[in-house]
Design a protein that fits this description.
By secondary structure, the chain is α/β, with parallel strands linked by helices. It is 45% helix and 16% strand. The protein has five domains: 225 residues, HUPs (Rossmann fold); 149 residues, Valyl/Leucyl/Isoleucyl-tRNA synthetase, editing domain (Isoleucyl-tRNA Synthetase, domain 2, Alpha-Beta Complex); 175 residues, Isoleucyl-tRNA Synthetase, Domain 1; 68 residues; 69 residues, Helix Hairpins, CATH 1.10.287.
C-alpha cells in the first residue's frame, strides 16, 4: 500500500474518524474484565463554538485515553454538553426580541419549547467540532445536562441535600444582572479594573458640632445608607462613636459605629458609609451590627420607592448625577478624584451588576468541604501540579454558603413548592398534590432554576445513571483523571469533590490535572475586543481573508493578510501538547503550528521513503514486534545481520519508548511531545534514514542479509514510532500505519495496537546500547566534519580526499572503524585514516576539530579558494559589525529601553547576543583561513 506523494492533512484527517466510529473502537464495555480508565469530559456549553481552551483539553484528554486504550485498559471517555443556563436564555430572548416579543409575553411553556428548538438546531455544532479534533469519546453515552436522566439526578441531589439540612432558603447578598434579570455566580462576573471617580461628601453631625467626610465610587447608594463605620482605634473618631449623623438629602439619622473589619484608618478618610442593601461588605457589617437594610435600587437598576420622591424611577447613573448636584447645592460636596476600581460586569450582557439582598436557595457547603479537603489531604485525590493544592485548600477552608438559585427559565427548575394558604415549603422529587401541613391544594412551584454549576457538580456520576446503581456506574466510578483548566478549580472541581463524597461516599476522580490558559504569542488573554482570537478550525482547515473577521482576528490578519493555510488537527494537537508544560500558560504562536505541520510532513516523507524501499517485503508476525526484546527466538530481525546503525536506532527507539511512557504517566505531555519530536526529526529522519540509504536505496550490491536487516529495522521502528505518536497525532499515524506492510496477525488499526513497552533490561537492549555508543561517536565526528566544511565554505559536492583521525583511545578507534562507510558517505570523505598521536605527522593546509578523545584533521588545499573565502568572510564581518553597531545604539538609548514593551527590548538584546556570537565565529574562521593561507 502507498501513501500520497505530498502530505495533505485535510484529506488525511477526513478519512479515518468515521472508520474508528464504525469499528466501535470508542465504545466502552461495562461488562469487560479489563481495568477501567475513565475521564468525563468537561461539558462545553451547548451554545458554544470550539475555542483554543476546548482544543487543549481535547488534545490532552484524548492523549490519555488513546494511550490507556492501547495499554489494554477498558477506557471510557464520556462526552456531553452543558445547557448553559444564562447563555442559552440570552440567545433565545434575543431571537424573541427580533420578533417583537419576549418570554413574559409568550409564557414559560412556550419559551421552553423555543429554547429546546434552539438547542436542537444549534447544539450539535460544538460536538461536531470536538470530533474534528479527533476526540475518541464514547458517543453512544453522550449526555446533556437537561436530559431526563440527568434531570432526575439533579432533583435527587437537591432533595437529599435539603433533607440532610444542607440546602436552605435565606436572605443573602447576590450579584444581580439587571439586563439578564438573574442572579450571577462569581464565575459569571468579570472584575477588571476601570477608570472611575471617588466622590467625597460631608455628613453633618446631628448635634451640629461638625461633620464626617466619607468617600464613595457610587454616590447613588448613599440614599440607602444606615450607618457610618470608623475603626475603634482611629483616634480621630473615637469621641464620635455612638453619635448620629443627618443623612444628606434623605434627612434620616444614622449612627456612627465602631467596626474593626471594614474601615481602614490608612485609606481615604478612615470613615466608611454603610449601605447593607447594595454592597456585600456593607451587608456583612450590617449583620454584625444589626443595621437596617434599605434597598433603594430595584431589579431593573432604577431607583425604587425607598428613595426620595424626585429620585424614584431614575436610572441608577442618572440618580448618581442628581445626588452629586444636590450635595453641591447643599454645600456638602467636598471633592472628586480619579481612581481605578473593578465594578463587576455580567459576562454575558456586559452590564455592571447590582449587589442586592434577595431570598435565595443556598447550600451550606462547610460540612461537604471538610470531606473534600480530607480526601485531598489523605491522598485519595491528587492535584497536579501540586502548587494548586494551596489554592484548593484556601477555597475550602474559607468556603461560604453557595447561592444555587437563578431567576431564569432555561435550566433545572427547583423541586420546591409553596403553599399559598399556610406558606409551607415542600421539597419533593414528585409534584405534591396537597400541602402536608394544611391539606391545601393551592400550591405554587418555585419559578427559579438551579445554578448551572449545581448540575455540573454531579457530572461524574449523574452521567453514569445515578441514583440508579447502573453497570456503568459500578464499572467506571470513580473516574481516574479530571483534566480541566485551573480557573475552575473551585467553581467546578471542588464542587464535584463535595458532591461526589457526600452523595456517592467516594471521590469522583483519583487525580486532577489542571492545565493553564491558552494566550496569544505575547501572553495576552485572547478576546474578541483585543482582536487576537485564534480559531482552532481556522488552524485546521485554513481560512482566507474573507473568512476572517477584521475585528476579532485583527492580529491574525496582520500576520497573514491573505489568510492562513490549513495546518490540520494533528499539527494543532502536537503544538498544544508540546506547549502544555504543567502550570505554565501557553503563548500560542501560529508559526509554531506551521512548524509542527512541517514536522509531520517530515514523518510523512520518511514513511514514503520506507514504503518505496519495502516493495515485496514480507513483514514478520506482528507478535514478534511485541516480543522483540525478550524472546531471542521470536525476533522480527536477524540480530547477527544488524548494522551498527540498525542497532543504534533500535536502541534510541527503546529509550524513547521508556521516556515517552514515563512522561505521559507523569502528566508531562510537553516532555512526551518533545521526546518524539527529537527522535523522529533528529534521529530517525536526519540520521537513520540517511545512514541506511546505501543499503536500502542506493546500492543493490549490499548483502541480502544486511538489506533485510535494514528493512526489518526500519519497519519495526516506524511501527513503534507510529504507536507512540498516535495519542498525540491520531490521523496521520493511522494513515501511515495502514500503509505499512503488516502480517495477518496485526491489529486492524494502530488505535488498538498494543502500546510499546520498554525492555531496557533485556540482553538485546544492552547489546544495542553498546553499538549505539559507537554510533553516537560516529555521528559526532560526521557533524564536526560537516561543520568545518560549512565554516570554510567547501562546496557541497566536493569530496575530501582523506580525513585523518588522531586518537589514543581504542574505543574511539573502534567506533571510527565500525562507522567508516557512514563517515565516507555522509561527510564526503574518500579515505579514512586512523592514527595514534605518536604516528600522526603534520598535514599541510589542514583544518582541525576536536571531539572528545579524537582530533580530526581535514586537508582543505585545493578544495577552497582561500583569497576568495577571506573576502567573503570580510564582507560577512562588515555586515554583522554593522548590525552590532545598530542594536548597540538602540539598547544604549534610555528612552527606547524605558518606554518600549519589555518583549521588544528582550528581542533586541537577544539579537545583540546572536550578532556577537556570529562575529566570534566569523573571526575564528578567518583566523583559521589565514593560517591555511600561510601554509600555502
Amino acid at each position: 500500500m502507498k501513501i500520497d506523494q505530498s502530505y495533505n492533512p485535510v484529506e488525511v484527517e477526513a478519512e479515518w474518524y468515521d472508520y474508528w466510529v464504525d469499528k466501535g473502537y470508542f465504545h466502552a464495555d461495562e461488562t469487560s474484565d479489563k481495568e477501567p480508565f475513565t475521564i468525563v469530559i468537561p461539558p462545553p456549553n451547548v451554545t458554544g463554538r470550539l475555542h483554543m481552551g476546548h482544543a487543549l483539553f481535547v488534545t490532552l484528554q484524548d492523549m490519555m485515553i488513546r494511550q490507556k486504550r492501547m495499554q489494554g485498559f477498558e477506557t471510557l471517555w464520556l462526552p456531553g454538553t452543558d445547557h448553559a443556563g444564562i447563555a442559552t436564555q440570552v440567545m433565545v430572548e434575543r431571537q424573541l426580541a427580533e420578533e417583537g416579543t419576549n418570554r413574559h409575553e409568550i409564557g414559560r411553556e412556550e419559551f421552553m419549547k423555543r429554547a429546546w428548538a434552539w438547542k436542537e438546531e444549534h447544539g450539535g455544532q460544538i460536538i461536531d467540532q470536538l470530533k474534528r479534533m479527533g476526540a475518541s469519546c464514547d458517543w453512544e453515552r453522550e449526555r446533556f445536562t437537561l436530559d431526563d436522566g440527568l434531570n432526575r439526578s439533579v432533583n435527587e441531589a437537591f432533595v437529599k441535600l435539603y433533607n440532610d439540612g444542607l440546602i436552605y432558603r435565606g436572605l443573602r447578598m447576590v450579584d444581580w444582572d439587571p439586563v439578564g434579570q438573574t442572579v450571577l455566580s462569581d464565575l459569571e462576573v468579570d472584575r477588571e479594573e476601570e477608570s472611575g471617580h471617588m466622590w467625597y461628601f460631608k455628613y453633618p453631625l446631628s448635634d451640629g458640632s461638625g461633620h464626617i467626610t466619607i468617600g464613595t465610587t457610587r454616590p447613588e447608594t448613599m440614599l440607602g445608607d444606615t450607618a457610618v463605620a470608623v475603626h475603634p482605634d482611629d483616634e480621630r473618631y473615637q469621641g464620635l462613636i455612638g453619635k448620629t449623623l443627618d443623612l444628606p438629602i434623605v434627612g434620616r439619622k444614622i449612627p456612627i459605629i465602631a467596626d474593626s473589619v471594614l474601615p481602614d484608618p490608612e485609606k481615604g478618610t478612615g470613615a466608611v458609609k454603610i449601605t447593607p442593601a447594595h454592597d456585600p461588605n456593607d451587608w456583612e457589617c450590617g449583620e454584625r451590627h444589626e443595621l437596617e437594610v434599605i434597598q433603594v435600587i430595584g431589579f431593573d437598576a432604577t431607583m425604587n420607592e425607598n428613595a426620595p420622591e424626585d429620585f424614584v424611577g431614575l436610572d441608577r447613573y442618572d440618580a448618581r448625577k442628581l445626588v452629586v448636584k444636590k450635595l453641591k447645592e447643599l454645600g456638602l460636596f467636598d471633592r472628586v478624584e480619579d481612581t481605578q476600581f473593578a465594578p463587576g460586569r455580567s459576562e454575558r450582557t456586559g452590564v455592571v451588576v447590582e449587589p442586592l439582598p434577595m431570598l435565595q436557595w443556598f447550600v451550606n457547603a462547610e460540612p461537604m468541604a471538610k470531606k473534600a479537603t480530607d480526601a485531598v489531604e489523605s491522598g485519595r485525590t491528587e492535584i497536579i501540579p501540586a502548587v494548586w493544592k494551596k489554592t484548593y485548600d484556601h477555597f475550602m477552608y474559607n468556603i461560604r454558603p453557595w447561592c444555587i438559585s437563578r431567576q431564569l427559565w432555561w435550566g433545572h427548575q427547583i423541586p420546591a413548592w409553596y403553599c399559598d394558604d399556610c406558606e409551607e415549603v415542600i421539597v419533593s422529587l414528585d409534584p405534591p398534590t396537597a400541602c402536608p401541613k394544611c391539606a391545601s391544594e393551592n400550591l405554587t412551584r418555585d419559578p427559579d432554576v438551579l445554578d448551572t454549576w449545581f448540575s455540573s457538580a454531579l457530572w461524574p456520576f449523574s452521567t453514569m445513571g445515578w441514583p440508579e446503581e447502573t453497570a456503568t456506574l459500578k464499572k467506571f466510578y470513580p473516574t481516574q483523571v479530571m483534566e480541566t483548566g485551573f480557573d475552575i478549580l473551585f467553581f467546578w472541581v471542588a464542587r464535584m469533590m463535595m458532591m461526589g463524597l457526600w452523595l456517592m461516599d467516594d471521590v469522583p476522580f483519583e487525580k486532577v490535572f489542571l492545565h493553564a490558559m491558552v494566550r496569544d504569542k505575547e501572553g495576552n488573554k485572547m478576546s474578541k475586543t483585543k482582536g487576537n482570537v485564534v480559531d482552532p478550525l481556522h488552524m485546521i482547515y485554513g481560512a482566507d481573508a474573507k473568512e476572517l473577521d477584521a475585528k476579532i482576528h485583527a492580529e491574525l490578519l496582520n500576520q497573514y493578510p491573505d489568510g492562513v493555510g490549513p495546518q490540520g488537527a494533528d499539527a494543532l494537537r502536537f503544538t498544544l501538547a508540546i506547549y502544555a508544560a504543567a502550570g505554565r500558560d501557553i503563548k500560542l504562536d501560529i508559526k509554531r503550528i506551521e512548524g509542527y505541520r512541517a514536522f509531520l510532513n517530515k514523518l510523512w516523507n520518511a514513511a514514503r521513503f520506507a514504503l518505496m524501499n519495502l516493495e515485496g517485503y514480507e513483514a514478520p508476525a506482528y507478535q514478534t514486534y511485541l516480543d522483540a526484546w525478550t524472546d531471542a527466538d521470536a525476533m522480527p530481525f536477524d540480530a547477527d545481520a544488524l548494522s551498527v546503525a540498525d542497532r543504534w536506532i533500535l536502541s534510541r527507539c527503546e529509550q524513547t519508548v521508556g521516556a515517552v511512557t514515563k512522561a505521559l504517566d507523569e502528566f508531562q505531555f510537553n516532555e512526551a511531545a518533545q521526546l518524539l519530536y527529537k527522535f523522529v526529526w533528529n534521529e530517525l529522519c536526519d540520521w537513520y534514514i540517511e545512514l541506511s540509504k546505501d543499503v536500502l536505496h542506493d546500492g543493490q550490491d549490499a548483502a541480502p542479509a544486511a538489506q533485510k536487516a535494514a528493512r526489518d529495522t526500519l519497519t519495526y521502528v516506524l511501527d513503534a514510532t507510529l504507536r507512540l505518536m498516535h495519542p498525540i497525532t491520531p490521523f496521520i499515524t493511522e494513515d501511515i500505519w495502514q500503509a505499512l506492510p503488516h502480517a495477518d496477525d496485526a491489529p486492524d488499526s494502530v488505535m488498538i495496537a498494543p502500546w510499546p513497552v520498554s525492555r531496557a533490561d533485556s540482553d538485546f537492549a544492552k547489546e544495542n546500547a553498546q553499538s549505539a555508543a559507537q554510533m553516537d561517536q560516529v555521528i559526532e565526528l560526521i557533524t564536526a566534519i560537516r561543520a568545518v566544511r560549512g565554516e570554510t565554505n567547501v562546496k557541497p559536492g566536493r569530496v575530501i580526499e582523506t580525513v585523518y583521525f588522531v586518537t589514543a583511545d581504542a574505543d574511539a578507534a573502534a567506533a571510527i572503524t565500525a562507522g567508516e562507510s557512514y563517515i565516507q558517505r555522509l561527510a564526503k570523505a574518500e579515505n579514512i585514516v586512523i592514527q595514534s598521536p605518536a604516528d600522526a605527522g603534520a598535514v599541510e593546509g589542514a583544518a582541525t576539530a576536536v571531539r572528545g578523545a579524537v582530533e580530526i584533521r581535514i586537508p582543505l588545499l585545493g578544495l577552497i579558494d582561500v583569497t576568495e573565502e577571506l573576502a567573503r568572510l570580510d564582507k560577512e564581518l562588515a555586515r554583522v559589525q554593522g548590525d552590532i553597531k545598530y542594536v548597540t545604539g538602540k539598547l544604549g538609548n534610555a528612552r527606547f529601553v524605558d518606554n518600549a514593551p519589555e518583549a521588544i527590548v528582550a528581542k533586541e538584546r537577544a539579537k545583540h547576543a546572536q550578532y556577537l556570537e556570529e562575529q566570534a565565529a566569523l573571526m575564528a574562521s578567518r583566523k583559521d583561513l589565514e593560517a591555511l593561507a600561510g601554509g600555502e
